[in-house]
Amino acid sequence: MPQQKADYADEAEIDAELDELPDEETVEATVERLEERGFDVIVVDDADEALDAVQSQIPEGVSVMNGHSTTLEEIGFDEFLSEGDHEWESLPDQIWSVDDDAERRTARRESQTADYFLGGINAIARTGELVAADLSGSRIGAYPFAAGNVVIVSGTNKIVPTLDDALDRLESVAYPLENERAQEAYGVESAIAKQLIYRRETEEGRTTVVLVREQLGY
Fold it and tell me: Which residue range or ranges hold the LUD domain (predicted)?
Protein backbone atom coordinates (compact mmCIF):
# COMPACT_ATOMS: atom_id res chain seq x y z
CA MET A 1 0.00 0.00 0.00
CA PRO A 2 1.45 3.41 -0.95
CA GLN A 3 2.60 5.66 1.86
CA GLN A 4 -0.08 8.13 2.93
CA LYS A 5 0.50 11.67 4.19
CA ALA A 6 -1.61 10.86 7.25
CA ASP A 7 1.05 8.29 8.22
CA TYR A 8 3.59 10.97 9.03
CA ALA A 9 2.03 14.46 8.85
CA ASP A 10 0.94 14.54 12.49
CA GLU A 11 4.55 14.12 13.59
CA ALA A 12 5.77 17.24 11.78
CA GLU A 13 5.74 20.71 13.30
CA ILE A 14 4.92 23.20 10.56
CA ASP A 15 4.04 26.88 10.20
CA ALA A 16 0.33 26.43 9.53
CA GLU A 17 -0.07 30.07 8.44
CA LEU A 18 1.97 29.22 5.35
CA ASP A 19 -0.26 26.27 4.46
CA GLU A 20 -3.68 27.92 4.30
CA LEU A 21 -6.00 28.10 1.32
CA PRO A 22 -6.03 31.63 -0.15
CA ASP A 23 -9.07 33.62 -1.23
CA GLU A 24 -10.09 33.78 -4.87
CA GLU A 25 -8.61 37.25 -5.36
CA THR A 26 -5.20 35.91 -4.35
CA VAL A 27 -5.53 32.92 -6.68
CA GLU A 28 -6.45 35.18 -9.60
CA ALA A 29 -3.57 37.55 -8.90
CA THR A 30 -1.13 34.64 -8.70
CA VAL A 31 -2.36 33.20 -11.99
CA GLU A 32 -1.86 36.58 -13.65
CA ARG A 33 1.71 36.86 -12.37
CA LEU A 34 2.55 33.28 -13.38
CA GLU A 35 1.26 33.89 -16.89
CA GLU A 36 3.26 37.11 -17.14
CA ARG A 37 6.34 35.02 -16.33
CA GLY A 38 5.68 32.60 -19.19
CA PHE A 39 3.89 29.77 -17.41
CA ASP A 40 0.65 28.32 -18.74
CA VAL A 41 -1.85 27.94 -15.89
CA ILE A 42 -4.92 25.74 -15.43
CA VAL A 43 -7.07 26.22 -12.32
CA VAL A 44 -9.34 23.38 -11.18
CA ASP A 45 -11.55 22.77 -8.16
CA ASP A 46 -10.46 19.35 -6.93
CA ALA A 47 -8.17 16.36 -7.30
CA ASP A 48 -10.38 14.58 -9.86
CA GLU A 49 -10.40 17.64 -12.12
CA ALA A 50 -6.65 17.95 -11.65
CA LEU A 51 -6.08 14.41 -12.91
CA ASP A 52 -8.28 15.11 -15.93
CA ALA A 53 -6.36 18.33 -16.63
CA VAL A 54 -3.00 16.58 -16.42
CA GLN A 55 -4.11 13.78 -18.73
CA SER A 56 -5.34 16.34 -21.26
CA GLN A 57 -1.88 17.92 -21.43
CA ILE A 58 -0.04 14.75 -22.48
CA PRO A 59 -0.40 13.44 -26.05
CA GLU A 60 -0.19 9.78 -27.02
CA GLY A 61 3.15 8.19 -27.78
CA VAL A 62 5.38 10.35 -25.59
CA SER A 63 7.71 9.40 -22.75
CA VAL A 64 6.48 10.40 -19.30
CA MET A 65 8.41 10.68 -16.03
CA ASN A 66 7.25 11.82 -12.61
CA GLY A 67 9.40 13.09 -9.78
CA HIS A 68 8.29 12.11 -6.30
CA SER A 69 5.29 14.27 -5.42
CA THR A 70 2.74 13.79 -2.68
CA THR A 71 0.40 15.95 -4.73
CA LEU A 72 0.64 13.64 -7.75
CA GLU A 73 -0.09 10.73 -5.45
CA GLU A 74 -3.11 12.49 -3.98
CA ILE A 75 -4.70 13.26 -7.35
CA GLY A 76 -4.12 9.67 -8.50
CA PHE A 77 -1.58 10.36 -11.22
CA ASP A 78 1.11 7.95 -10.01
CA GLU A 79 -1.34 5.07 -9.98
CA PHE A 80 -2.72 6.06 -13.38
CA LEU A 81 0.75 6.25 -14.91
CA SER A 82 1.65 2.81 -13.61
CA GLU A 83 -1.68 1.06 -14.15
CA GLY A 84 -3.89 3.30 -16.26
CA ASP A 85 -5.18 2.91 -19.77
CA HIS A 86 -2.92 5.31 -21.66
CA GLU A 87 -0.66 5.34 -24.70
CA TRP A 88 2.43 6.83 -23.01
CA GLU A 89 5.86 5.36 -22.40
CA SER A 90 6.06 5.13 -18.60
CA LEU A 91 9.70 5.74 -17.65
CA PRO A 92 9.23 4.99 -13.91
CA ASP A 93 8.12 1.45 -14.73
CA GLN A 94 11.21 0.99 -16.89
CA ILE A 95 13.52 2.42 -14.21
CA TRP A 96 12.27 0.26 -11.37
CA SER A 97 12.46 -2.87 -13.51
CA VAL A 98 16.26 -2.46 -13.65
CA ASP A 99 18.02 -4.69 -11.08
CA ASP A 100 21.51 -3.19 -11.24
CA ASP A 101 21.90 -0.09 -9.02
CA ALA A 102 24.34 1.70 -11.31
CA GLU A 103 22.20 1.09 -14.36
CA ARG A 104 19.14 2.30 -12.47
CA ARG A 105 20.90 5.55 -11.51
CA THR A 106 21.83 6.08 -15.15
CA ALA A 107 18.25 5.47 -16.22
CA ARG A 108 17.00 7.97 -13.62
CA ARG A 109 19.38 10.62 -14.96
CA GLU A 110 18.32 9.92 -18.52
CA SER A 111 14.67 10.21 -17.50
CA GLN A 112 15.20 13.92 -16.79
CA THR A 113 14.96 14.45 -20.55
CA ALA A 114 11.51 12.86 -20.81
CA ASP A 115 9.09 14.34 -23.30
CA TYR A 116 6.83 15.16 -20.34
CA PHE A 117 8.09 15.46 -16.78
CA LEU A 118 5.53 15.85 -13.99
CA GLY A 119 5.95 16.87 -10.40
CA GLY A 120 4.96 19.19 -7.60
CA ILE A 121 6.33 22.39 -6.16
CA ASN A 122 6.94 23.46 -2.56
CA ALA A 123 5.81 27.07 -2.74
CA ILE A 124 4.37 29.61 -5.14
CA ALA A 125 4.86 33.32 -4.56
CA ARG A 126 1.92 35.53 -5.42
CA THR A 127 4.50 37.49 -7.43
CA GLY A 128 4.89 34.49 -9.76
CA GLU A 129 8.00 32.60 -8.68
CA LEU A 130 8.02 28.84 -8.00
CA VAL A 131 10.25 27.36 -5.30
CA ALA A 132 11.21 23.71 -4.82
CA ALA A 133 13.99 21.63 -3.32
CA ASP A 134 15.17 18.02 -3.31
CA LEU A 135 17.72 15.94 -1.51
CA SER A 136 18.98 14.36 -4.74
CA GLY A 137 17.75 16.84 -7.34
CA SER A 138 15.97 14.05 -9.23
CA ARG A 139 12.80 16.14 -9.51
CA ILE A 140 13.94 19.72 -9.88
CA GLY A 141 16.73 18.83 -12.31
CA ALA A 142 14.21 18.40 -15.10
CA TYR A 143 12.25 21.59 -14.51
CA PRO A 144 14.58 24.34 -15.80
CA PHE A 145 15.81 22.74 -19.02
CA ALA A 146 16.20 18.97 -19.36
CA ALA A 147 12.61 17.86 -19.92
CA GLY A 148 10.83 18.61 -23.17
CA ASN A 149 7.67 19.67 -21.36
CA VAL A 150 6.90 20.16 -17.66
CA VAL A 151 3.58 19.84 -15.85
CA ILE A 152 3.60 21.03 -12.24
CA VAL A 153 0.60 20.29 -10.02
CA SER A 154 0.02 22.23 -6.81
CA GLY A 155 -2.65 22.86 -4.24
CA THR A 156 -3.40 26.54 -3.78
CA ASN A 157 -2.33 26.14 -0.15
CA LYS A 158 1.22 26.62 -1.44
CA ILE A 159 0.52 30.21 -2.54
CA VAL A 160 2.21 32.75 -0.26
CA PRO A 161 2.62 36.55 -0.61
CA THR A 162 6.29 36.95 -1.59
CA LEU A 163 9.39 35.07 -2.68
CA ASP A 164 10.80 35.41 0.83
CA ASP A 165 7.63 33.77 2.16
CA ALA A 166 8.02 31.01 -0.43
CA LEU A 167 11.54 30.30 0.78
CA ASP A 168 10.25 30.37 4.35
CA ARG A 169 7.52 27.89 3.42
CA LEU A 170 10.14 25.56 2.01
CA GLU A 171 11.95 25.57 5.36
CA SER A 172 8.99 25.62 7.74
CA VAL A 173 6.32 23.56 5.96
CA ALA A 174 7.72 21.43 3.14
CA TYR A 175 10.95 20.32 4.81
CA PRO A 176 9.46 19.15 8.14
CA LEU A 177 6.84 17.09 6.31
CA GLU A 178 9.31 15.64 3.80
CA ASN A 179 11.73 14.84 6.63
CA GLU A 180 9.05 12.88 8.45
CA ARG A 181 8.10 11.10 5.22
CA ALA A 182 11.70 10.13 4.53
CA GLN A 183 12.18 8.76 8.02
CA GLU A 184 8.92 6.83 7.81
CA ALA A 185 9.68 5.46 4.36
CA TYR A 186 13.45 4.99 4.37
CA GLY A 187 14.61 5.41 7.95
CA VAL A 188 16.80 8.41 7.05
CA GLU A 189 16.47 12.17 7.35
CA SER A 190 15.91 14.41 4.34
CA ALA A 191 17.64 17.71 3.58
CA ILE A 192 17.18 20.84 1.49
CA ALA A 193 20.24 19.96 -0.55
CA LYS A 194 19.37 21.23 -4.02
CA GLN A 195 17.04 24.17 -4.43
CA LEU A 196 15.35 25.79 -7.41
CA ILE A 197 13.80 29.23 -7.81
CA TYR A 198 11.88 29.06 -11.06
CA ARG A 199 11.44 32.75 -11.92
CA ARG A 200 10.38 32.54 -15.54
CA GLU A 201 9.67 30.10 -18.37
CA THR A 202 11.32 31.37 -21.53
CA GLU A 203 10.02 28.69 -23.92
CA GLU A 204 6.40 29.29 -24.85
CA GLY A 205 4.08 26.44 -23.94
CA ARG A 206 6.77 24.34 -22.25
CA THR A 207 5.67 24.54 -18.59
CA THR A 208 2.11 24.23 -17.34
CA VAL A 209 1.07 24.80 -13.74
CA VAL A 210 -2.13 23.07 -12.63
CA LEU A 211 -3.50 24.84 -9.55
CA VAL A 212 -6.00 22.91 -7.45
CA ARG A 213 -8.32 24.68 -5.01
CA GLU A 214 -7.56 22.09 -2.33
CA GLN A 215 -4.96 21.61 0.37
CA LEU A 216 -2.64 19.15 -1.33
CA GLY A 217 0.93 18.05 -0.88
CA TYR A 218 3.51 20.14 0.89
Answer: 28-184
